[in-house]
What does this fold into?
Amino acid sequence: MKIYLIPLLLVVQIFAAQPAIAINTRCQSIETETDSTGSEPVKKMDALSLTAYVTAVTAIASLFLVPALSLALFPAGMVMGIIGIARGRRKGYKNKKGWGLALAAVVLGGAFTLLFMTAFVVAILSFA
It folds into this structure.
């Protein structure tokens, strides 16, 4: 598989996960599942938050293997994390988990994106 197709696959995954999430939120039987004791509903993982976190962690790994790939993955993880947090605030994380994963993706993506931009500006100014 070509390495330049990975960001494209991430975007396709985001849009492909949307209908599945919409179906899960419409089905009351899925949302109100209880654990074996029957005391409280089981919280399901938010797919976008998990994808954002995995993207940010993959960007850290690709920083050492393919540094150019991490230039695309860090901002992608940050944007997906922001969308995950915004979606969670709008719908509420009543029956979903993943707010912490989305927040971690925003922090990791933002910090490393800022680091890359600072390094780029310093490199440009050093040659001027």
Observations:
- The two ends are 39 Å apart (CA to CA).
